[in-house]
Amino acid sequence: QVQLVESGGGLAQPGGSLKLSCGASGFTSEYYVVGWFRQAPGKEREGVSCISTMDDRTYVVDSAKGRFTISRDGHTVFLQMNSLKPDDTGVYYCAAIQHYAPCYLNVPYRYWGNGTQVTVSS
């Protein structure tokens, strides 16, 4: 069973940085995709970024391009968030799907972590 554990959330000031980590275990294949999603209070969950082990290509949504960077080291996936804005506030989840494919955010991710809170406020 794939398990995902997020860490690194917290309080940051506008313009500040946070680095989220997603520790993953239990994969039965070397090919999988990990995505980061967030849910702000009163809003639907939205995809933020993803990375595929098929080709290590990444994707970042337009609202976070130039500010967020996704990377991985083995089974740990990171989301470096710079120039944070209050709109980045929310619970951040990592999710995974085991398949040989490029990364997309609009696929049915099967495994989810419990989330980590990110609050951007002065």
Summed over residues and divided by their number, the pLDDT gives a mean of: 96
Strand-residue proportion: over 45%
Number of strands: 11
Structural class: mainly beta
In terms of per-residue confidence, which ranges show pLDDT below 50 for 5 or more consecutive residues?
none
Rg, Cα atoms, Å? 13 Å
Q: Ends: how far apart?
A: 40 Å
Outline the structure in words:
By secondary structure, the chain is an all-beta fold. 0% of the residues lie in helices and 49% in strands. The chain contains no helices and 11 strands. Strands 2, 4, 5, 6, 9, 10 and 11 form a 7-stranded mixed sheet that branches.
For the structure shown, list the relevant keywords:
11 strands; four-stranded antiparallel beta sheet; seven-stranded mixed beta sheet
Describe the structure concisely.
The protein has 122 residues and is an all-beta fold. It has strands spanning 3-7, 10-12, 18-25, 33-39, 46-52, 58-60, 68-73, 76-81, 90-97, 111-112, 116-120. The protein starts with a strand and ends with a strand.
Give a topology summary.
Layout: E1 3-7, E2 10-12, E3 18-25, E4 33-39, E5 46-52, E6 58-60, E7 68-73, E8 76-81, E9 90-97, E10 111-112, E11 116-120
Parallel strand pairs: 2-11
Antiparallel strand pairs: 1-3, 3-8, 4-5, 4-9, 5-6, 7-8, 9-10, 9-11
